[in-house]
Amino acid sequence: MKATHLAIYTTLFALLSTPTVSQAQARSEKDYFRTMDPRARLELIANMRVKRSFKPLSEIRNIEEDDKDNQTDKIDIAQYLTEKCGFNYQRTAAGIQRPQVQCTYTPKSASNPFNGMTAKFDCSFDAKQDGGKKRVLKVKYEPKRYAGGGHKEIPQAVMGTLMARMMGFYSSTYCPVDVVCNDCPSENPWEQKSQAPAAIGNRVLFENVVVEIKQKGFQVTDSRNTNTDKPQGFSFRNEMARYAPRDRALQAQLLTEREALAIWMNFVRSQDADHHNNKLYCLKSTVVEGSNPKCDQSIGVINDYGNAFGYSKADRPLKLSDFSRDTLMSGSGRITAWGASGNSGAGGYTISQAGRDLFVSMAESLSDNQLEDIFQLAQVEKVSDGDSSKWKEAYRHKVQRIKNFRFR
Fold this sequence. Notes:
five-stranded mixed beta barrel, three-stranded antiparallel beta sheet, 13 strands, 31% helix
């Protein structure tokens, strides 16, 4: 490591180790992580993981014991979605079938409104894995004027989160389903920001939607943040590039993982790579009486792929030619990943050969069957100018070009 980099890290670690939060009055975990002191939050970012392995595959049911240590291409996506979402995904000769699930419309409170532009509403579902208790989940949909589920959030959410998860990144969970909404006020609840009262007895079918499963853990925000609609998660070029733990081996590992994630954001050409879409969570914490909670595992999650995969406008198909553009470029003595845009600094992120090699190993781990499942669930033939075979070919060629990129 260069001397200038060492000096930066020494200064930052001194800053991070400065006690800034009073221990006199302990707060609940949720309150503490929701409004963390900025410097304490930086310590979580310094140790933040953005990648995890599937090993062991304890979250996947019915995997043969001998297969538990194999690569991700052993994972059946229908089985994975059934486990993660709590809905029953069946595989037929035509591919994975989207389940049709029932829920009861739950009006959104005016004091706790939804954020963002994508049409959505809350709905109460039965939770098989939680003793039959109800769970209120967010349903994202596109108004019916866009055939095939729309050209914006829905297909990109399916492709982005499933690909990222199969590669081994931490990822949000968006479950592709058809939803029968009981007591729904209309075919477009978003017209009233999903705050309209329930229409008892009314039933509306929403096809080709996604149901969001909330990330476990506590979302970490900054006490200085004044925009409650878009709380800051983390940035690539600033926080992820500058903060890392003291341990040199772990530091190198985390920085390489972060480079791989930056390549991924440019690979999918995310046009909404803003820091509020990059969520920071405390996945595991310890509560000690008389003090604030201690975060034992902090993770970074990409939460939004709405403007990616060749997206241009909401009423236009995804363009395969835009998705297919190269990801790495050289200039000014640096190798950078490009293709993403947004205020988090993912575009133009400096990449090492180790980061490139890690990304390639992750991207190559997806099998043709998994890619076929993902593109089929995203219904790419309805929302783009290419079918699943063309998207698979573009994916493979794009990964190969990254693999062949020359580092001097």
